[in-house]
# Entry
Amino acid sequence: MTAALVVLAAGSGTRVGAGVNKVLLPLAGESVVARSVRVALAVAEVSRVVLVVRSGDESDVSTVLEPLLGDREVVLVVGGADRHASEWAALQVLAPDIESGEVDVVAIHDAARPLAPVGLYDAVLAAARRHGGAIPVTPVAGLLGPAGAVTGAAGVQTPQAFEATALLSAYTRAARDGFSGTDTASCLEAYGDPTGPGVSGEVSIAAVPGSARNLKVTYPEDVALAEALLSPR
Ligand code: CTP
Ligand code: MG
# Structure
């Protein structure tokens, strides 16, 4: 049994506003998407890496990936109108391997988090095999309750990993309903039925420790911050 990894790069990066998709911006000499894919390729026991790209970005993305590949394969898939649609595009490509049982767990990651370490993939994949689902969570600074107790607010990151048949089943049923979730966990929360359509049940989702370093490039200042984190000190 092997894992599959999905890297989502099919957005437009409008909030960064760089003129090109933010995933193509260089960070300390390597583009955001190249770094995210390079890390994904370093995760052990992965049989498939699927990279979801925006229509029109295919050739730019292929050019930056080319030097990373060696004898490895990355499947390029054109994404959809929102993040959920891009996930669905990747899962449809993975469906035969999930249905055959070759892929037992899938992790889905935002290319816009280029600093996610290999160890975080390992942690969510292991926890998803044990619990059904796993997401990286960090405490949110500045939200302290009485006597310093954290109020429960948490920052949810990617990669998020799920048992593959439960994930595919949830997204298949979500597609029938036209449901679109903000992240993978939100779709599993709504459609997380591991036993198949029509049967009630849910996927339990474990929290694994995320990291403040695993920042998401959302705004222009995040590009500078990510670059600073990557530069030798
Ligand atoms: N994403 C995707 N397909 C979409 C929209 C987003 O694959 N249709 C990906 C992005 O490439 C990114 C991740 O989902 O890696 C998180 O999305 P976000 O940070 O919102 O990126 P963008 O949508 O590109 O940025 P913006 O919302 O500022 O346009
Ligand atoms: Mg977006």
Observations:
- The first strand starts at residue 2 and ends at 9.
- Residues 11 surround magnesium ion (ligand 2) (CB under 6 Å).
